[in-house]
Every structure is written in structure tokens, then in C-alpha cells.
């Protein structure tokens, strides 16, 4: 499923959410792509007791990966003025593969 967000019909969408589900492998994740406004600040964070947090590289840029103890992962990184967030029932290797295949 794909959901686009925009203010009105005359404006291009500045946010897209893609929902992916694979029922055979019991995998699902959400990919959010959002264009940032000028001078907008973005933060990311989570409860450190819930899992492991690390900085990774995606397309030569820093990414912030969080893996939980129950087998879920989330990754946030910038691509130009676009914030890319991936979260779902993925391993570290799987979420990195998704991120590295986004062009």
C-alpha cells in the first residue's frame, strides 16, 4: 500500500508512506519518505533499554539504526533534504538491504 500526503491538489506530495507485508515470511515494514521544510530540525531516539542503537552508513551518509530485543528494527537517515525512515519486523541485515536498495 502507498499513501501520499499533501496540503491541497495543487501542491506536490511532501510525504509518502509505503506499507509492505509478506504474509508467507511473516515480515512487514513501513517506509516513510518525507521532504523537510527549510531549516527544519529532525531528531530520533528511543528507550535504550529496549534494544541496541548504532550509527550505520547508508549511501555514504550516517544512519541511525535501532534493533529491539523482540526482533524489530528501525532506521532513520537523510538523503539530501529528504528524511527516510524504515521500521518493522526486519533484522539489521534486512533493514540495511532495504535502505541500500532505495535510489
Written description of the protein model:
It is built from one helix and seven strands, in the order βββββββα. With 103 residues, it is mainly beta. β6 and β7 (82-88) form a beta hairpin. The radius of gyration is 14 Å and the shape is globular. The protein starts with a strand and ends with a helix. The mean pLDDT is 86.
Helix and strand run: EEEEEEEH
Number of helices: 1
Strand order of the largest sheet: 1-2-3-7-6-5-4
Described by the principal axes of the CA atoms, the overall outline is: globular
Identify the notable features of this structure and list them briefly.
103 residues; mainly beta; globular
How is the secondary structure organized here?
Layout: E1 2-5, E2 15-22, E3 27-35, E4 51-58, E5 61-68, E6 73-79, E7 82-88, H1 92-100
How would you summarize what this structure contains?
This protein is mainly beta and 103 residues long.
